[in-house]
Design brief:
Blueprint: E1 20-24, H1 28-41, E2 54-55, E3 62-67, E4 71-75, H2 80-87, E5 98-113, E6 116-129, E7 135-140, H3 144-158
Antiparallel strand pairs: 1-6, 2-3, 3-5, 4-5, 5-6, 6-7
Helix pairs in contact: 1-3
Length: 171
């Protein structure tokens, strides 16, 4: 009888976790709505556990944490691996077939002054490998998706329509 361990992904050295930061000349309320609107424009929503920013009693300024649901950005076995490789360092799975890739955006938001808000964004990537492990694997973003998201957020906080945005999870 031969003992065979389950097959696991072999990681080259993973990229370090990247935090992309920016300071926006907008109120925390506008930035918060801008993040939710950006999620909506990318085809996802804020995580249902998200709560509105809370005031720090010591400083009198607001801060919060908001993350998205998973956003699928690659699917199908013919191009998924190529798309995933563009955004991070894939786990090495000999003979593996990547079927889907997704991202989760996580923002820390902190009010610095009435119309000045600090944001820090981390993107986590995951993909489903079907051919060998039949599992979802997780790895760090290389920063491209993070920069694209912050670029969209900068545009949306400057758009007056963002003030009127209401997230509708029923669409």
């Amino acid at each position: 009888m031969v003992n065979v361990a389950p097959l696991k992904a072999q990681f080259e050295e993973d990229l370090p976790q990247i935090t992309t930061e920016d300071t926006l000349k907008s109120s925390i309320r506008t930035v918060w709505k801008g993040i939710k609107r950006a999620f909506n424009e990318l085809g996802t929503f804020s995580d249902p556990s998200t709560r509105d920013p809370k005031m720090d009693e010591k400083t009198g300024l607001y801060r919060g944490f908001i993350r998205s649901d998973f956003r699928v950005f690659a699917s199908g076995s013919d191009t998924t691996a190529e798309v995933l490789e563009r955004y991070g360092r894939l786990p090495v799975i000999r003979g593996g077939t990547w079927k889907a890739g997704r991202v989760k955006y996580e923002f820390k938001v902190r009010e610095l002054a009435e119309d000045l808000t600090y944001v820090a964004l981390v993107c986590g990537i995951s993909g489903y490998e079907e051919g060998v492990t039949n599992e979802v694997h997780f790895w760090n973003s290389n920063g491209i998706l993070d920069k694209e998201m912050l670029q969209l957020l900068r545009k949306l906080v400057m758009d007056p329509e963002t003030e009127n945005f209401k997230e509708n999870r029923m669409k």
